[in-house]
Amino acid sequence: MVMKNHKMTRRKFLKFAGASLAVAAFSGYTPLMAEQAKAAGTSGASYGTDGSKYVPYEERTGAESVVYFTRDLSAAGLVRIFDRVKGVLGGKVAIKVHTGEPHGPNIIPRPWVKELMASRLPDATIIETNTYYDGGRYTTEDHRETLAVNGWDFAPVDITDEHGTALLPVPGGKWFKEMSVGKGMVDYDSFLALTHFKGHTMGGFGGSDKNIGIGCADGQIGKKWIHTAEGQGQWSIAKEEFMERMTESTQATISRFANKIAYINVMRNMSVDCDCAGTSASPVVTPDVGILASLDILAVDQACVDLVYALPEESRRDLVERMESRHGLRQLSYMKEMGMGNDRYHLIDLDHGDARITAKEAVKGISGHWTSDGL
Questions:
Q1: Domain range annotation of the chain
Q2: SS3 of residue 336 by DSSP
Q3: What is the dihedral of CA 324, 328, 334, 335, to 10 degrees?
């Protein structure tokens, strides 16, 4: 257990993360030490080197999945696209959504989620875990207060590591054989990843992979395994190694739910910083795009990245720089290596009779910088 007086605050984390990435780039060294190897159950792993390189669609190979797309950024749009992937959900449903730090300006609008749950998932539960940094969600007590401040009081919220942790196997993992998650998560029958797609200080971008890989790992064990090399600083693991560890954590959760998991990514208020940054997040620059959904985690995250790269240069510049400088694209190539999905897909336009479209067609007419929708 990492004691609180050794923890870094959220604001300091945002500043330190950039510095730690610079050190990692200089030294090329992110060690997996013996004690952590023992906990994770593996050793001697090496990481990929392709995290700063975007691979255009025409250069990819393999099967194609289906990704649904709508430009309708509203409660109605969210419900409509959910209906395309809802068939796999049943029993006791967990909704994993980033509920944000206090007064976070960019999290998914609560009225949208409220409408989705009221009309389609009345018996579902929002799930979360406590954080590894000292902020508004570090302890369960503080986390409950933040949930109320941010307006998540319309539905039950299960902080899954409140009462302990569980170990889930990581099929095909090289960094981990097991991942530590919130104990409460294993009580659910199916899983909806409802994700705010945006940038991320460490991950480059935060899609469904980040929402699950970091968001389901418990606050004091799982997140430590992902972020911290033994004997090093709290955020000492970065770039490709971090992407791989996070993705293996995701693999543990999606393997647990097998074919009973669906993914929705909301491309709105896309700051280069995660919702962990709260009110400290960098101002949003990238224009809003729409909502995507799939039963394939790689396909939905890849499609979001493709739509960002398809934007005009002035519109995509900041978010692309964040992805590439953090080597965040390794999330995509590693998910493919791990057999978690396909990076090729049919993009289905719900707004135009289910026509198959390209990423460039999806963002046609979007230019300039972000303007607020007032929500």
A1: 4-51+65-362
A2: helix
A3: -120
Cα Rg of the chain (Å, integer): 19
Q: Is-contact 314 321, C-beta < 8 A?
A: no
Spatial distance between the Cα atoms of 259 and 313, rounded to a whole number of angstroms: 38
Would the pTM count as exceeding 0.85? yes
The 10s digit of each residue's pLDDT in 188-200 is 999 999 999 999 9
327: left (phi over 0), alpha (psi -120 to 50) or beta: left
Condensed to tens digits (0 to 9), the pLDDT of residues 247-275 reads 999 999 999 999 999 999 999 999 999 98
Nearest CA-CA partner of 341 in 299, 304, 291:
299
DSSP string, 246-287: HHHHHHHHHHHHTTSEEEEEEE-SB-SS-GGGGGGSPPP-BP
**Cα–Cα distance measured from residue 166 to residue 159, given in angstroms and rounded to the nearest whole number:** 13
For the chain, helix (H) and strand (E) counts, in that order, are 12, 13
HSE on the CB side for 306, CA within 13 Å? 27
